Amino acid sequence: MKIFSPLYARAMAWSRHPRAPWFLGGLSFAESSFFPIPPDVMLAPMSLANPQRAWWFALLTTITSVAGGLFGYLIGYFAFDLIEGWLRASSYWGAYEQAVAWFEAWGFWAIFVAGFSPIPYKVFTIAAGVAHMALLPFTLASLIGRGARFFLVAGLMAWGGPRMEAVLHKYVDRLGWATVAAVVIGVLIYRA
Fold it and tell me: Cα separation of 157 and 109, whole Å?
C-alpha cells in the first residue's frame, strides 16, 4: 500500500513553497514553548528540497527556536500558576518533574541536552523559568544545543540533496511501514 509516498510528495512540494520559511520560523518558535510538533519535520524536507539554503534554514530554526524557548522561560517565570493545572493533567507532567530534577543536578547541561535531543525542550524552557535559572546560561545552552541539532539535520539533508530525495521517494513507503511496525512493537514491549 502506497500511503506514505503521496504524503512525502506533498511535504516536498510544501517545503518549496515561498512562505515555507515563515512557517518554519513559526513552528520553531511555538514548539519551544507550547506546541508538540518538532521543527525537524519541516527543516529536513526544506533542506533536502533546497540544499543551497540549508544553512539559512538551520539558522532561522535555531534563532526562532531559542526565541520560543525564551517565551517558554517567561511562562515558567511569570505564569506557571496559570498553566500548572493543565500541565499536571497532560502527558508532560512526568517530563516536567524530570526536568526539575535535572536542573537540580546539572543546570546548564540540562538545557543543552534538552535542546539537542528529542526530549521535549518546551518542558525544560518552562522548568528553567520556574527554577529562575540565570538567563544568560539558559540562552547560551539553548543556542548551542538547538543550533547543533538543527545544523546537523540541515547539513545531513543538504549533503544528501537530490540523490537522497530520489532514494527516499523510492523507499518512503517501506520506511513508513517499518516505522509503524517499530512503534507498534515498542508499544507492545512497553506494555508487557
Answer: 27
Q: pTM for this one?
A: 0.78
Instruction: Give the pLDDT mean for 82-102.
Output: 85
Closest CA to 96 of 107, 87, 83: 87
Instruction: Retrieve residue 155's grid coordinates.
Output: 547539513
Question: If pLDDT is split at 50, 70 and 90, which confidence band does 63 have?
Answer: very high
42, 50 Cβ separation under 8 angstroms:
no
List, as own/partner pairs, every contact residues 157-166 make where C-beta atoms lie below 8 angstroms and the sequence separation is at least 24, other chains included. Answer: 157/43, 157/44, 157/45, 157/47, 157/48, 157/51, 157/54, 158/47, 158/48, 158/51, 158/52, 158/54, 158/55, 159/51, 160/48, 161/48, 161/51, 162/51, 164/48, 165/12, 165/48, 165/49
